[in-house]
Amino acid sequence: MAAALEVESTLTDRYQTTVPETVRRALKLGKRDKIHYTIRSSGEVVLTRAQAPHGEDPVLGQFLDFLTAEISHHPERLQAVDAGLLQRLQSLVGGVDVDLDAALSADDE
Fold first, then answer.
1. Which of 22, 54, 93, 97 has the most CB atoms within 10 Å of its CB?
2. What is the pTM of this model?
């Protein structure tokens, strides 16, 4: 049997802690990922990476996290959408009717 790796972290006054890097790597945790705790009758606590709820898109979540960080670090890069650009966008997709609740076709899956 392989030797277990043991690490520690400290609780703050608000009962918060930083997940040690070795644990983050082992669980493949990224920023904003959720952690699942299983408390066994023996008092042992098992920490695992929480699975994304059904229907949640992990790629979209990562993209939104990227946008949040980018806007926070570089607010000077934000630009207003002018009327000309808005008109060009509407000319590209303005006539497209999309039913977001419709099932995908076999070709689209």
1. 22
2. 0.47
